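Attaching the record inline, Q. Sequence:
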Amino acid sequence: MTTFPAIRLPARSHGPRSAQGGIVLFISLIVLVAMTLAGAALMRSVDTSVVVSGNMAFKQSAISVADRGTQVAVQWLQANSAGTTLHNANTAAGYYANILPSVQDPDWFDINSWSDAFVVNGGAPDAAGNVVRYVIHRMCDAVGVPSSCGLYYGTSGAASGGSMAVGSPVFLGTPQLYYRVTTRVDGPRDTVSVIQSSVLVGT
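Structure, as predicted:
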């Protein structure tokens, strides 16, 4: 019996394949992390856009509601325009018979500047959560009988009027006083809107 020597085959090497699999896994993890970060950034961007859009909507709503406060102030002026009621301040109604003594207005966005304002609806928020307050200033330098005030005279097409200057407008009727109404609205999400309006009321 002939005996042949055993042939030993070289062991199969898995080195290159194992190394390649590790690189693919590493790249896959990097791609996965990059995609996760991109998705998080996209969600954050969308959330920010939604918040900004919501804030702009609340701001626009607050401006619209401020008109209602101005209307309430004008109604109060019209109801008290007769006699001498408007010659003196009425802080309970948010009314001042003269302009602010200081050169500059206060910071109307500071709630501390509204301690003597009139709060519409007793301070109860409306259905949208807005609280409206206002102050009225008569555009005069001092309280009492109007002497140094912002006045408006209507003009007419008549041949003669109250002015003697050549080319000047012809004055007509009783002058009207200017009043400034400053309205503030505090809405949801700390929304604050401040508007100012000038109105004319007869003396």
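The radius of gyration is 38 Å. The chain is about 30% helix and 25% strand.

More tomorrow.
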